[in-house]
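Notes to self after the call with IL:
- keep both proteins in one doc
- input above output, always
- annotate only the second one for now

Protein 1:
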Amino acid sequence: MLSDIQIAQACEKKKIIDVANEANVPEEYLELYGNYKAKVDYKLLNDLKEKQDGKLILVTAINPTPAGEGKTTTSVGLADGLRQIGKKVVLALREPSLGPVFGVKGGAAGGGYAQVVPMEDINLHFTGDFHAIGAANNLLAAMLDNHIHQGNSLNIDPRRIIWRRAVDMNDRQLRNIVDGLGVRADGVPRQDGFDITVASEVMAVLCLANDIADLKKKLASIVVAYNYDNKPVTAGDLKAQGAMAALLKDALKPNLVQTLEGTPTFIHGGPFANIAHGCNSVTATRLALKLGDYAVTEAGFGADLGAEKFLDIKCRKANLKPSAVVLVATVRALKYNGGVNKNDLGKENLEALEKGLPNLLQHVDNIKNVYKLPCVVAINAFPTDTKAELDLIENKCKELGVNVALSEVWAKGGQGGKKLAEEVVKLCEEENDFTFAYDINDPIEKKLEDICKKIYHADGVQLVGNAVKQLQQLKDNNFDSLPICMAKTQYSFSDDPTLLGAPKGFTVSVRNLKVSAGAGFIVALTGEIMTMPGLPKVPAAEKIDVDDNGVITGLF
């Protein structure tokens, strides 16, 4: 059996100019990065503003497990499947972070015969967007510390700096550091730390900005610290937004690639959904909607994280309305939620499957009854799945009025996604009453409570530690009208990663409330969630190599 990277390397790719031509992207808007990658100038949207939008399809999933759900694989296969049944479709995905690529998860370009290519480039440096974001983040950090060193005319309290440095790598050693050591000329000593680049507010700003002017406005609004009078200090106060935007001017343009079957694909932006808003850029999504009759996109991790933020933050800010939602699940992952050991997931176990099914059904219920959107469950097929197991899932979903489609895209590509595609097309023709999970004008406490009760099905939410003071500070500085970006474990509806399935009788603890004024939301950190992951005992990096001819192996 061929590995993912071997399948990708054997693919006969189209020249990116031909892919752009199929998507009706004029050549004058293309900036080529070799033969198979290009950036597309977002100014193309101005030329397309009179064109009617296509149907927006969101792909999300149950809570992830070590067994894997295949959300990106399903997104790619669905797009190829729609193309196979004669639909004009454009895919819009997130860029992978180097952290998971070299850590435990591996790449994020799909799998099997449902991948985007060039797979190695996409999973590694791609077109340099993440490097630009990290550089802009760290320029702001340097200008902040330099301002304090040069006299601190803004009266910044060094103990209340909230802006951290960033690097796109899992590196626990950098979570908490002391910098500025040495002689006086080496800076002001203080506690500091690094976030992974995907968690940087600069990433969120890039994903939500419309153009250079909007980018600079959002960058200028970033709160980096508080002064001795308890007032926020911004990147605009440091006069940093112009230089940051100069670093980001090319990164702001979406990247165009293709699937193994040649379906046009925008890959742009990549925040994690457990610690950020978890969606690709608004610009890439809008281009996909204008260029295709159907636009397929995904949101990170489980629907309680990625889909919630896609719907409550991205759709609210960009005035988007989904036509249908695809909820990805696997028999294996549901059995894991039912208590089966990872090594035994290939054996039929209807009892464990039934015990794990509430996780899927709760996500389905949220999509249908909280957000009021039509939904189909896509079972990402594995060879070990039995008919009895598949029938059990289908029957339980039908009790909620939701259809199930078997997705065989990993093994068969677009051909294996045709049934799912046909079901999605039917759903897109239904009218829906899309609504948000909370009212943006409600107090912060009420918005937190609505998310925790309606989406997580918790008994409530409690603010602990610094969050109580931070709540009042946010109100005092008029930040209370912003949406909420929950930072929570991806493995559970709760803030405890060990509570699998659909737990009940728990309370969510918010320990930190931080404004991301540039991105336009409040980040609520829950449980033990961290913004800088670490590498596992055996990192994926140990298996990655490159030969004398530059051919990469070990990526998955």
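Protein 2 (the one to annotate):
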Amino acid sequence: MTALLAFLPILVVGVLLVGIRLPASRAMPVSYLVAVGLALFVWQVPSVQVAAASIKGLSLTLRLLFIIFGAILLLNTLKYSGALAVIRNGFTNISADRRVQVIIIAWLFGSFIEGAAGFGTPAAVTVPLMVGLGFPAMAGVVAGMIIQCTPVSFGAVGTPILVGVNKGLAGEESVQTAVTEMGFMEWDGFLAFVGFKVALVHAIVGTLIPLLLVVVMTRFFGSKKSAREGLAVWPFALFASFSLTLPYILVARFLGPEFPSLLGALIGLAIEVTVAKRGWLVPKGETWDFPPRADWEASWFGGLEIDLKSGQVSEASRVGAFAAWLPYLLLAGLLVLTRLEELPFKAWLRSVQLKWNIFGTGIQVDETPLYVPGTVFIVVSLIAVILHRMKGAGLSAAWVESLKTTAKASVALLFTVPMVQVFLNTGGGLSGFDKMPIALANGVAALGGGVYPILAPLVGGFGAFVAGSNTISNMMFSLFQFEVGIRIGVDATWMVALQAVGGAAGNVVCVHNVVAASAVVGLTGREGDVIRKTFMVFFYYALSAGLIGFAFLKLGLLSSFG
């Protein structure tokens, strides 16, 4: 019964967003009220704890809005400097085929940004870039969400493993004992082993993601509404997958969890751009494009519409190709440099901290404002102003448009993130119930029985769907998954690996990320339409990962490095 009750806030989101098609700005307040009602009257959590969780949610919302504003500002700066027109021409020169473009931008460049920064940053970078290149806003958001699976477990230089799994398991005596019995003398070695298993499952399941990406594009956004047009580029799509996943596995095995997505995507990007330029592995004499703009469905349009034929393009003649791309190169470089432990920049940026134990509840606001990716976006935007010698009118227009678009995103996020925090902070109530996420996970485990490993990724995906983060999902459920593995007599490291893979897949349908990605291109209010298009990708990913993990467990493969 507690599992069913814990599921109510999520059910409300699904019914209102996907079923009734309400915008998130109306659905999420209802979900928030349901979560608060359950916390106060069923879990019997003190009202001060609910208030503290809501305040923490608001602080996280401000962080998200800051990232959204920075991403939009960079795009608008490049728009008014003329650089965006140059970038578009560059992609057209690589290939005019939108199927090739979406693989290079969303799958490869997006995975690189995920490896560097994580936390929804790939959508903030790639979605507006695709819109600037002429993609419908809805198509850009859907593409940006679909690829947030395979690279996510190693996003932000390995944070979901090194922080999420680590904090979820470290310090538990039963885990330490079991890990020692498995033969791991070093905790870092244990994390690296789990990370390798995560990479292996991702590489297998993620093989089809670039192909699914183009099939979704042609099926939902083509003039013929044909999946066959997407399947036609299967050689290029599969090669793009292997270009990323093969180095990704090797990096995970020999270098650890920090760099699989970062280096895998970088290598894949170099290979695939070369292949695309030479016209290899793509259909000959066929170039797929979206229908003429006049034929687009109303739901495809967003509030951020970039007219590359307007007056600002006249400035493009003085912005060369390298100068046009330099802000994105600086963005990727700064994100990497500021997230490496070996360099001092991360410590410097994180030294500015805002901490508050809210109302003495133990629920903490712990913000490092200079470390948020939004800061890097804004710094790079200001550098772009100088590099491209922008005029005052263009600079002013970029800031005004960016502030307006960010404001539209604020309503939905002001309820989405506090709802998540109330949901997560329902432990310690007078009812004695486990906190809502654990109660729900226990219900799923009880239903699953001996085949529970097949369902384990769904629990991880649920955690990400609610919390908006693979890292938080791993933090919430890694211990639970480990203990279930011990109880049902299977290799617990595989259970944690399946948790991490499912948590990454959950980002594909995560309301939190869909709202943020939609807001970047002014698509606020159509979040349910996005989730309807991405849900089957999530279902494929989580179910396939569960079946693969179950097979590995039954065969006893990779139970140790020996």
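Annotation: The first helix runs from residue 2 to 19. Strands lie at 354-357, 364-367.
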